[in-house]
Write a structure and sequence with these properties.
alpha+beta, about 25% helix, about 25% strand, single chain, 4-stranded mixed β-sheet, 4 helices, CBS_dom
Amino acid sequence: MTLVQMQPRSTKATAVGRTVAEAMDTAGLQVYDDMTVEVALSVMASAHTGHLLVCDDSSLCIGLITHARLTAFRMSPAYSDRVQLRDIFRDRGPFTSPWATTAEAGHMMRHSDVDALPVIDEHGSALGVFALAR
């Protein structure tokens, strides 16, 4: 069974020198990696969001999946309507810690070429999403 989990929304801090915990968005959808690509795209459309936090069967965050990545995968020869999110993740991450500075997380995002990072605790559970202001 695939579970969609909502988290409460926080206020965003933008001051320089802040930690990721102070600047992250705790609102977000967490889904399990057994969800199919089609269902994930439907959840994103319904929630008006461009990404989902993906957790494994132990409820540990394995990463963040974007609408763009799912749409591109759906157009690939490897796609079928039975492909699950776990099938598209090669590696876990990248992630950031709530204690990292926003500058450190921003550097990691630029180096990893991603628009948002899952924020995880010391156990690997998702706390929220950190995204750079555009």
